[in-house]
Amino acid sequence: MLSRRALLAQGAALAASPIVAGAQTPPAEAPVVGGAQPTILKLGRRDIEVNGKTASVYAIRQPDGAFGLVTEVGKPFRVRVENGIDEPSLIHWHGLTPPWRQDGVPGISGPPIPAGGSADYDFPLRFGGTFWMHSHQGLQEQLLMAAPLIIHDGRGRPEEQEVVVMLADFSFTPPEQIFENLKKSGSMAGMAKPPGSGGGKMMMSSMKMSKGDAAAAPDLNDVKYDAFLANFRTLADPETVKVEPGGRVLLRLINSSAMSAYHIDLGELDGELIAVDGFAVAPIQGRSFPIAVAQRLDIRVSLPSGSGAYPVLAQLEGERNRTGIVLAAGNGPVARIADQAEAPSPALTLDLERRLSAVEPLKPHKADRIYTINLTGEMAGYVWSLNNVAWNKDVPPLPLATGERVELVMMNQTPMPHPMHLHGHEFQVVEIDGARFSGAVRDTALVPPGQRVVVAFDANNPGWWAFHCHLLYHLDAGMFTTFRYV
Ligand SMILES: [Cu+2]
After folding, report:
1. Which one, of 78, 106, 82, lies nearest residue 92 by Cα?
2. What's the CA-to-centroid distance between 386 and ligand 1, angstroms?
3. How far, in Å, is the centroid of ligand 1 from the Cα of 400?
4. Which end of the chain, N or C, is more open, meaning fewer C-beta atoms within 10 Å of its C-beta?
5. How many angstroms separate the CA atoms of 149 and 132, rounded?
6. Within a 13 Å sphere around the CA of 483, how many CA atoms are in the beta-carbon half?
7. How far is ligand 1, taken at its centre, from the CA of residue 293, in Å?
8. Ligand 1 centroid to 448 CA: how many Å?
């Protein structure tokens, strides 16, 4: 049994780095964490039932069984991760802006936590909202090594009931086998030119073209999943949340899927989108909202008076598959909901993104530095890359300097959509296909095939930071790079 040591005191010289017991030699005399005890998050295994079969998956839980963490802005993020699985792991705090050594990316921010070891984290929380945590080690995220991370900040209304919905894709095939199959097949179902006229130079020559029509839809869903989960359950046995008739609910939707994007379908409920990726937007009314991989949506709904059951569904883009939960007001019956919609949904678009407007945008400033990042790939062998470079440890980081306003011009030259995530910083969407606007502040931006999305951020958190496609197998295949200013 490895000793667990609490070495971090806020403001101490070591505070920028989590201490990984077992992976480093701790000093003999270790100071004790100042103030409150850390919240323990234990990485373990558990069984869930999917399609009538038992599956062993991962879990991130507190000792009382709670998944993930609910905390408050202003409190320090003081957490001890205990690795109770039989392989190394490391947890990334998706959307937070910790010191870079606490960001949870193996090989970049630090070593993984060995089996049986632990790591301590302690940093201030700059903002509240809906975030999540997930393993950045190997393919563990596919086995549900993920959990909600909710930070209250007074934006919620006292009479409002919060309902967290975490979406996931699930396969009985082991993740390593899924990845091998992708590399072997080396082709995609709907391989075709991206939609729209402004696709620019396409990196199609090395890709296997489809036999079909050139105007086909973008290529979606190259992994065929066995199930789609909402809070670990399918629609055969969905989570049913008791709510007050006539009450108000804040839905905190988290797409923790490895590869799957959805259309959130509120059915007969009117929704008001108030935040994306934790950051407030000018409210948008609607009953259907897109959510790409790793993104979050905060949606307010008001329930009708009287008893009733109101499904909150998530339908896979391009397909009929769906999952979801049920809001049950009063004592009305809850009818079984089919896990297939009547018709396939369209691919996600940027129609909503263009309408989003941050409540607190970046201060106007011209870019001090602009990087063009081409999203590239070769389907033969399932190689995904940025600027035609598949990540490896010898790829030099892209330099930044503290205080700069940085813009990333992301051009998708592939037929697949890519949800692009920057670590350690929030960014603002400032341009889509040549049209400048003051869009949402967020941490994950979808770039559909052939499209161009520009995001801006302030280099205000020095360190070495990952930037990557959040589709798990694209990330693992090399659609990843880093920024560095230390
Ligand atoms: Cu991708």
Report:
1. 106
2. 10
3. 24
4. N
5. 4
6. 27
7. 10
8. 10
